[in-house]
Here is the input.
Amino acid sequence: MIYREAGDFKTSYPSDSQTFPIAFDRYRYWVVLAVAYLVIPYFINDYWANAILVPFLIYAIAAIGLNILTGYCGQVSLGTGGFMAVGAYSCYKLMTGFPDVSIVIHILISGGITAVVGAAFGLPSLRIKGFYLAVATLAAQFFLVWLFNKVGWFYNYSASGQISAPERTVFGYAVTGAKTAPASQYLIALVFCTLCAVLARNLTRGTIGRSWMAIRDMDIAAEIIGVNPLKAKLTAFAVSSFFIGISGALFFSVYLGAAEVGEAFGIQKSFLVLFMVILGGLGSIFGSFAGAAFLVLLPVLLKVVGVDMLGWPTDLVSHLRLVIVGGLIMFFLIKEPHGLAQLWRLAKEKLRLWPFPY
Amino acid sequence: MTLKTMATLAATTALCATSALADLVIPDLSYRTGPYAAGGTPFSDGYQDYFNLLNARDGGIGGEAVRIVECETGYNTEVGVECYESTKGEGALIYQPLSTGITYQLIPRATADEIPIHTMGYGRTSAADGETFNWVFNYPANYWDAASVMVNYLLEQNGGSLEGKTLALLYHNSAYGKEPIPTLTALAEQHGFTLAELAVDHPGQEQTAQWLQIRRERPDYVLMWGWGVMNQVAVQEAANIGYPMDQFIGNWWAGAEHDVTPAGAAADGYLSLNMNRVGDLPVLAEIQEMVIDAGDAAGDGSNIGSVLYIRGMYAAMLAAEAIAGAQEIHGVADVTAAMVRDGMEALDITDARMEELGMANIGPAFSVSCEDHGGSGLGIVQQWNAGDGEWVALTDYIAPDDGITGPLIAADAAAFAAENNITPGCL
Here is the structure.
């Protein structure tokens, strides 16, 4: 009954090829956006912004970025943390070097810088595949973290090697620094997240996305039908790194406010984003959101249930979280390799037939 | 089963209801998991047990019960932020994050929310400048004091001169480990020794390369800024290459029992700083009797009396004294975070007061003022006796060289003030 295409007539090609061809799906999308933009900002408080919504939105951007590379183009990457660090440190250098330029422009340029770095580290992907490529990106991860730790210029020679975001405003509202209102913090992350998601969705539906998927499915066949692997792989690395760079810049400036490269952008960050993509669903924009939401919310949920409601010791809950996340990853890899996105797809199929399934 | 669930629910609601009453809320951002748990657990046990003792013995502070809200951070800054946000709404009076990384996150947030942070012997060193950092306190000592105390100790050992010596700094490659570098660089210039910097990446289990370098270059002394598993590995590695333990000095976060016991007898003679004395304090017997034996211990009760347990207890004592001071200044028992800050700024710890509290000579006597949030900066050097399994204090409290650390603090604080548009001044 829900999600049915019956009676939803398309009279032009653009309307037939739009992102959400089913009317109900489209309305749902607009409702979600309306709630996110018009309702949540009025109710958000410090806790919801800092602990749940802002990290969710920023991780979603990173997951979209990694999903383009791994899910759409089939290139495994373990360098996400390093690329986020490039975004964060570019943003820091730009913020402190050009204080009069808008932070929005700085974040976009940080994405651009990360795209260039990502494409450079993507070069080996033209010769190596699979595990070997994973190791090459792992090298990027360790090299970048080492670089930002070693070279004082990147952190303006501060005594502790920490970078901290000075206050910057957008339309007169502070979006970075301590005096940021939760609503403005949330809104800046939301705007970037929406733009990135729309951009990613449309890229993956077009020529370039199809060439990525062709490479993913079988690179030799793709080359034979005329897909240029150099162009496809390097654009995938560049676009993916662009998103990851934006998320790294936001992560540092809007969310944390101060960061230390080894701690904030270490190898565990690469794995976390990879888990988001795997759990959420490879090759799906919705999956990136679902995976990010799942891994951001799960620890908080476990803490609320375990510590606040049941009164368990905090260390027990913390250990349980590791067990549960690990178990879920194994469960999903075995039972549902396409992740939460596939569950959502199945649910839509079921809803379509409901209440008369056959 | 339904009945049981309902009973649990009812009990939880009852608990929540009672805890919502007016009381003094002390968040404990602890870490009992992860690579730094070995240090985080005893500190948190000591911190909580002392407040539990106050509740059991005196009915809280000034008649107002203390409620501890524990939040596990795992030494992770993101979780630390989540913990801060989730606990501050409960009326948190003072934060003690026990992590330099989390401290850096919390300084701007807590300043905006007007909640004091106490970073005892860690955190941002320049927070000692109370006019720039109104809400941050790092008494009784900080990292730069530690670096200076170490060098002063070595000067004393070497007849007043370190000319031509090589000191290697083995540090945790993070804000924590990098903090002493400016001071040591300045001291190297002043005293004519060479400083070799050896970074160890988080979490600190991989140190073979660094110790190979030490083995090759044979520095005269190795200073260590380590924490968690890094300390144990370093002591073991030093034993493996046969580096003389009495030339290996850890800072006060690298000098607890669990750091040296894994290396066994080989760790005998290892030196470290300490900012508090350890030993048989009368207050420990009270905690044993009224908290641990009563079943209210924060942990399993096995850490009582250890170096970091006593330091956690010391931190809790300083917080409790500040709260008591705030109650006195403002004449109300149910103080707010802003009042606690006033209490911290007026804190005056005397030898008589420490004796009265059952912890005679636990730390040096010191007082805090609006300008100076850093305390006296004194530290002792202690040595591990593996045979008896105890730390032996080698020296009395050694004073740091304020002539070196003072200008560095002023410069760093001024840079922070300029970056964040702060006009230094007293509140």
